[in-house]
Fold each of these.
Amino acid sequence: MPTHGPDRRDAGPSLEQILGLIAPGMLDVVVAPRGTGVAVADVVLHDPGEERDDGTWAASGLILLAVGVEVASPEALDVLRGADRAGAAAVVMRRGDRGPRAALVEAAGLGRTALLTRRPGQGWTEVLGRLRTALAHSAPAGAGGTAAGLRLGDLSGLANTVADLVGGAITIEDPQSRVLAYSRLDHEPDPMRRLTILGQEVPRWRVVELRESGFFQRLWSTDGVVRLPADARYAERLAIAVRHGSEVLGSLWAAADGRPLAEDAAAALRTAARAAVPHLSHHQTWGRAAARAREGAVHALLKGDVRAAPEAGIATDRPYAVVVAEAYDRRGAGSGGAHDGQEAGVGAGETYGGLGPAADEASGAAGQRVLDVLALQAAAYRPGCVTARSGRLLYVLVPAGDGETDPARPLLATARSVPRSVVLAGAGPVADGLSGLPASRETAELVVRVLRERAARRPRGEVVSAVAAHGEVVPETTVLRLLDRVEPLWGSLSGPVHAMVEHDRAHGSAYGASVAAYLDASCDMGTAARRLHVHPNTLRYRLRRARELFGVDPADPAVRLLADIGLRLAARRPPPAPPLG
């Protein structure tokens, strides 16, 4: 007959400690027959099929996450009894709408395993991550004494603590070599540390250099400290991977800070790596989840849900203006997107949330790095700036001072100066209360659309970053608003301009482009021909044929107005697919 495991009250952190470190409301204790002082050894996902009738399956001291099992389901009672026989400290099931059945509660009270429920809206992956983070943070003092007294997730405090212990400058990085925190600067940093801190990541060329030399392979494949000797360029460095089980959470880097590293620096760094586990695990689970929730709240606020203001980090008593920035990195695949003109216009209803599916799919890591820089610039520009992303777009809520009507102007200037990138950024007006944020957002998006259409008209190699405040492009944004309203009606009409556009689409002719260039040049034949890169006689012939074939005569004021509207709307549509066969 299977027997219960030992009580193990002094063998590790208690269930009470673990539950006290996770987010309130994530788990509920239904029944704890031995109290919550029972010791916890680990947290694992539980597959009921792993249980053995002979009692060989053991879960002594474990918290079991019974994925797929609801407390009201028929199998819940069997899962609880199996966990109890195996000596589990607790079992967690999904709560559901009805809650636990009376028979389940009664059985839990007669056993030794605590019954917990996971509330709706909480994912199993997040529950597992948070419980393991709490378990690591509650480990015996010998494993994490280096960081004793630090608030869980205080990476800056951890970096400073480790710097004192190691006797060097510390950088904490994630597995992608992005900087999570760094210690205070007691001495002038060497050039590499300066570049890494300013860029918030190890420079790409340095990452390639370390990868090709085999350094990263050694770092990620060992539990020990890896040494990078000093050379003519940079000081000596020691690095160690921070692991939670088989998962690499990041790395600690120690650099000589004005003096050689101490003899026991490597041993100190090994101790620090153990102490860093709960903090990096916290960053990975809580920090990222909190950032996602905050970003979702910003999006909700920009769509008009003022209830999201506290979670978004927005002060309800301050006015804000919205800045929208669209980023392309000249070094990456995203560099051509603003040049090609394929997506120069965005139809009504497509403005919020990026450029549409094609552009979002094309957004690569290069463009995202530009958004990283822009978000950092926004955070450094003014306290209280809040950001959120969507595809290639970055939304920034900029707080305004008393009587300030243009709080985003310096930020726009800064956005324009991001090196090796094309940034199109527009600012909306200061919102009159939180309910005015969607209107400010919409105006800022329109400004970016204006800048994008300007970029599409420039030669490919001449596209540069451009920024504008809403008051600088009022005529153009007004035209966009009008076209957005007219577009549904235009599609239901027919006439000479419709016929010309359809002919161009079917036959690949350029009558519409010729008329559009002629109108855009204020009916100046020479200017329009130069913009089209054709001879003026060629343009005259096309305009004459447009009049003969379709009745589109730019000399007629009514036709000229309709042609201008229709051709602007036609430019928004993607080109037709090539014929099959």
Amino acid sequence: MSARIEDYALLSDLETAAMVGRDGSVDWLCLPRFDSPACLAALLGTPDNGFWRLAPPGRGPCTSRAYRHDTLVLDTCWQTVTGTVRVTDFMPPRTQLPCLVRVVEGLSGEVTLRSELRLRFHQGRVVPWARADGDCTVAVAGPDAVWVSADGPVRMLGGEASNVAEFTVTAGHRLALTLVWAPSHLPGPPAPLAVPAETVLKETVDHWRRWTGRCRYDGPWRDAVVRSLITLKALTYAPTGGIVAAPTTSLPGCLGGERNWDHRYCWLRDSTLALSCLLRCGYREEASAWLDWLVRAIAGDPADLQTVYGVGGQRLLPETEAPWLPGYEDSRPVRFGNSAVGQFQLDVYGEVLDTLCLSLLAGIPMPAHVWNLVESMMGFLLRHWREPDRGLWHVRGPRRQFVHSKVMTWVAADRALRMGELLGRNGSADRWRAMADEVRGQVCREGWDPAQRSFVQAYGSPALDAAALLLPKVGFLPARDPRVRGTVRAMSGLADGGFLRRYARGGEGVHEVDGLPGGEGAFVSCSLWYADALAATGRGAEARETFERVLAVRNDVGLLSEQWDPAAGRQLGNAPQAFSHLALAETAFALAGTATARTPAAARTPRTRAG
């Protein structure tokens, strides 16, 4: 059985990522990039679907582990009856080919270690051909080749099914094992294998510490904020600037259930929060790269605007199932790709225009053609904003008149008006202002439930939705408005063990709204929205308590998944989740009052996804 989700730490070279457990096993690795097929997929199946374990034989979880300060370099230690050993895992930022390095160092006595690498290409399915090539072993299947080498003597015990080595290290002795992916048609060992591991390790540590040294946040939760920023950077596809929602797919929102989604892509509804967080923390270059990715990805007809795109901006992300993978703790189906690309969601138009407005307010140059995009998107919304859609949570049930979607069409009009004023482009201002006024009136009339004294999920429904907490954050209503205060009070109806669900818990049958059976955990992002809203409405002590509760469920190396199960005390959903870490950083700023790159609250709009 796979380890718990919170037992995994993240490694990244800024183009792909690996997940390594407390037992020293890398159980997830896609090569050569985030959305490539996995070659180690035990996370979603069994050891026969691929893993690389490096640990003392017969040992269980490590004695201790931690990232080196302000880096993504992971040190894992085992204390045995014969001695103590440390394994340092890292992926050097990509310059040529993806590379995973594992450095073993004896700290005391002597310790025998076992390295077992079982490669399975094409999503844990294809057993490669393996052969020796000089001092290396190379495994090949189709377009993929993985080269493995060690910089010291090892005793090989395996064949094609697994590559196994056993060796003993004494105090002060080091040995490095290196895995490099290359296209299978290239001859000979790839160049990264020729670089000494110690050199690569030093360069990797220096890279991360230079990057974290630019962080402007200096509030009471600095360690948590910096770790969240490192995680965000690790989920950034450096060639394009796109930020994936998570490096994993199909980690379930309900153990044994089918709420299993592929999050190795870029969601538009993360765009404003990502830009705001990066600018606040001093990462203007990364903010500009994310904005550039966004503008390239959405180019085209506004009617074709998608909710999600690939890391390169690609639009086709067909959703398929992998029946050969039994799923994380028997959670089926395992999915690759995401059918949300074909959903109609009004809220993304507001997200895009909110992001463009924020970038303009921050002084990021806007290409002239982007204003044409603004006008085109607003023209589309003028014609279609009254239609039902799939909503923020891109439900797989029927389309509805979701309150949040309507609010975001108001955001779109509001931000377009602001940009027009800044740029001196007011030709359509009257129509956009009339639309904004009509949307506001409709939402306040149809989306308000006087019995609960709260805004609800959809017109004509009494169901609550945590997205209503965003009304003051996007500037739709001020926090002092009695309707906002009433909505915040009503959200206690979504509370579960001190955390907040996105909407009412589903039962054993099919959920009325999202069209899926079973329940799910509380959403980390929704709990953080709640903390923000509590603070904005003058309930500061409760806000800090809620925030500290979220901090407490990070794993031992500071990572958060998408959801938390208060009853089982477990993380759920894909991990680590970019939005959870973005929201954490934003809430830390809100509660500490130490923002050094402050932007108008109405221009900062967090979002997440669920599928």
Amino acid sequence: MRSFTGWAVGLTAALLAGSAPALAQATAPSFANIFADHAVLQRDRPITVWGTAAPGETVTVRLAERSVTAVAGRDGKWRAVLPAMKAGGPYTLSVGGAAGTPAQQLSDVLVGDVFLCGGQSNMEFQIRHATGLEVVPSSNDAQLRFVTIPDTSVPAPAADLPARSEWKAVSPETVGDASAVCYFMARSLRSTEQVPMGFIASEWGGTRIESWISAPSLGKLPGFADRLATVATFGSNPAAAVAGEGARREKLWETIDPAARKERPFRDAAFDDRSWATLPADDGQLPAADRAGLEGVVWLRTTVDLTAEQAAAAQRIQLGPIGKFDETYINGRYVGGGSVDWVWRNYGVSGGTLRAGRNVIAIRVVGANGRMAFTNTANRMIGLKDGGTVALNGPWHYRIGSPIRDAQVAPAPWEVPNSLTTLYNGMIAPLSGYGLKLAAWYQGESNAGEAGAYRGLLTTLMADWRRTFGQSDLPFFVVQLTAFGKPQTVPTDSGWAALRQAQAEAVAADANAGLAVTLDVGDRFDIHPAQKKVVGERLARLARVIAYRQPGLRSGPEATEAMRQGSDIVVRFRNVSGGLQRYGGASAIGFERCAGTTCSFVDGTVQGDAVVLPGANRPEVTTIRYAWSDAPFVNLFDGADLPAAPFTLPVR
């Protein structure tokens, strides 16, 4: 999988500052960066293309024998719509302007079906890490292409991707880089549809659903308006937003840590830390004696000498991952703070923060479970505009502060992976209007435990993307969370099960959506199970029925009702192919009868398209649940080898 450095967040101001002048200075007509050699365009619908040219210039766009004209606006942007085309190619796609203006030509462009695949790390998970690698040697397919959108987080919708996309035809040499789920879905569909296909992978590991929804749509949901306003401030005035975030966090620390006010001088350049201990230079971790039982604050300080040129060219400070919370100061000025232990700390440095000569970096870290994670010296540096760096190789002095358990410091709303709207802005908005056949979504691990909000967020995301791409009926397929975590020996509440239910409810309320159940291909020891081939093929099954209008069932067994019948309760299912099957035993397992919040396991007997729960009908039983666990063990399938979907149902 692509590694997460996160410094796109720290470069937000630079990205914004660089985008507008580029449009104004463009003279030769060009396409937006999603259009490139080997791209695939959507068949059987008008083909929208766009790009930049000199303001007011008339441009001509050609694809095969078709051509249209458009006029660039005052901002240098143009947009044109070519007539719908049947599947075919390869073609040349070109744009040219007035006589003497160089034209841009893109070669080997196909017209077929285009899929957008989004989400977090399980959608990002590449073929090279998946099972089913026997497909790689035979993966030559010039009619199947893919492109991966670079990780980009910005506080306002970007007009374009940061660089020209690299569309690739699938081959043994290229397929290892592809999203495994998206590839296996497309590969399966290619075997039946026989048209060119391309998939756009726009995903980022560890991210929350709120990052992928536009600000106008997210702002309609309760609880987001203030934080979205802060993101907007970060876009227009990053220094002011960062200073405000520092003040917010400091105020919070004063409620968490009784020593916070007294320790304020620790961040100042003039503070004398010569009495503090020194971190070992080899790994940067606290000595074992200080790690024992550590729960709480650790202060770190170091110095770095810069020339006047280096101080003027400094753009960011890079510290590597820090576990779990941090606030980082340079010469007493807050520059950033993180809240996720595996995320690299890369904070932008505004002008005047660093100076020629001696500079002091101070960090308040919150360690947990005897672990104050701080990466080795190779990962700590000042980044310069020209790509050069100045190492922060110590010595680092430290002082152990207040013992604090379970500190919670809410992240800044632009902080990946917990940001609001910034990934939509950088990785979805620049694709706006690109023709699609369907969208697939694999995300939810980072929102587990928040099922109450997730249903509305997923419904909002589906509507938001359909609006972005101008397709109100765009088929949208959701991969339900698989099994991960500690298996249960007794029934219990489960944040993962509740989120699966939220996913199912959002999909059930949408006529153009489908749900891929994946309980049987999880890995309770690994949040990134490698069985992506099965997941992709289940998405393809949904696509054939919903997107391609072929006959068949869109899903596997789904419970419709739980009814009292004598001393038993009968659970009836729909969408069953070939009758219900139970693997590995005489009984169907994973069912629970619940009296209020008290639940107990009960085995089931398969009878056709129903499961009978013998003796379960007691007066106090109000609910039947199935597979209600983070990592449930289940054995109920149908004749098509599709697992029964988890559920909770009232007893009638």
